[in-house]
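2.7 Reproducibility. Because tokenized structures are sensitive to small changes in the input, we list the exact sequence used for DUF3847 domain-containing protein, including any N-terminal residues retained from the expression construct. No trimming or masking was applied before prediction.
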Amino acid sequence: MPDTSKLEKLNRELEKSEKKLRKAINDEKALQHQLKQLTRKERTHRLCTRGGMLESFLQEPERLTDDDVMLLLKLIFHRQDTQELLKKLLEREKPETP
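Resulting structure tokens (single pass, no recycling of outputs):
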């Protein structure tokens, strides 16, 4: 009969371990979801900030269409000097993220 008791104990430990594993998997899924939310919030903030920067350079931005703004951006970013500056900016060392 001691073998039955040992088997029951091992089964309880197995159930306990499986429960811990399920909890860890669920915790990981929750953390991944939080990370996606943070990334989305950061992107939204960046888009709003940079959109505001762009509008600060436009005269009467409310009168311009999206196509007008796209045309301006295409012209600006296809210039050789703009491309060179962009390349230099991208070659800088990336700041370390905490």
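Helices lie at 2-57, 66-77, 80-91.
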